[in-house]
Sequence to fold (405 residues):
Amino acid sequence: MRGGSIAVVGGSIAGCAAALAAARGGAERITVFERADARLRDRGVGIALHSDRYDELRDAGYVAPEMPWAPLTRRVWSVRDGDTPRGRAVAVQPFPFRAYNWGALWGELRRRVPDHVDYRSGSPVTAAESDDDGVTLLLADGRRERFDLVVGADGYRSVVRASMFPETGPTYAGYVGWRGTSRDATGLPSDGHDAHNIVFPGGHCMTYRIPDGHGGQVLNWVLYTAPPQLDGDHPDLRTPTSLPPGGLTAQLTARLRALVSEHFPPYWAARILGTPAESTFIQPIYDLEVPHYTAGRTALVGDAASVARPHIGGGSVKALQDAAALESAWSAGTSWTEVLQAYDAARGGVGAAMVALARRMGEVQVENTPDWSGMAQPEFDVWWQDQNRGSDRRSGFGGHSIKAP
Fold:
């Protein structure tokens, strides 16, 4: 399938990968609409790619060795143990991941988007209207533009998905991720090659080092827990939203800091509590499954389609895999119908499997946590196997393998 005009709504990691897929598939005209202005939207947060998934995506041409990263080899689960600086290690797992800075990875993907692609920053799309022959996008400035195919890469609050499936939207999981990056990455155990899960009743905090984008490193962390139910403390999280840096109320911040002070080993508490307020934000956690990844002349990639809770470490993997699958369908198909049917068949089941596994992990790691203080490695191993029970051998922590079983 060669030629045609393609719009990609959303210009972050998923959007840049989708634009690459369209270019490699042979699209004649490609336009990317990104709602943010030309300034980088980098909050410095970390993402991690399982080493096996990285190899697959490298072979597919969507990641490369020169993209800055930090190696991770183990994950250590720790609980507070009196004043012991780093607490007591409950369990240790192999953790073959590559840690990236979101902004640095986005920047590398953005540079790989071909020059002939029209990448428009500061261009919000407000609606998408489909018919048998194409899709018309309505822009925030009142203009209308028409395309043969539209790819929604606009995240969990996707305008494109809303036009395809108006009754389908994200469901609030009942808890949030409080995220931040600390400049103090000194004194990390194992020379910083470990990821650490600090566990407590009602949640856990995962932390690992990432490149800072300037040749150094910072400590990325995300704490999962249910927010306190305080009037006026935060908006109704059942409606998809986020609380950016500076958007946290003093009351909510005080509650979260008190939780860290009470439950975290002193070393880790110092790193979390020492993070500047302007470097922290709240990410409400949502689930989402779509009936299909395509409808008419529209397709979805990344979080615009299925949204899996972050506990499986596969969100960015899935977005890049979606793009690779779209490129494969594009190369093999001889019509828009063939391309879109093949893409939907390739990715719909993967998205559903990842959502289901991430939901189970969220239930036992946040919503219904075990007695962490009574655990050691044998008890942990049984608990870990139970939460992964039922997942097929290609779908698990780190995302879904795109290779044949």
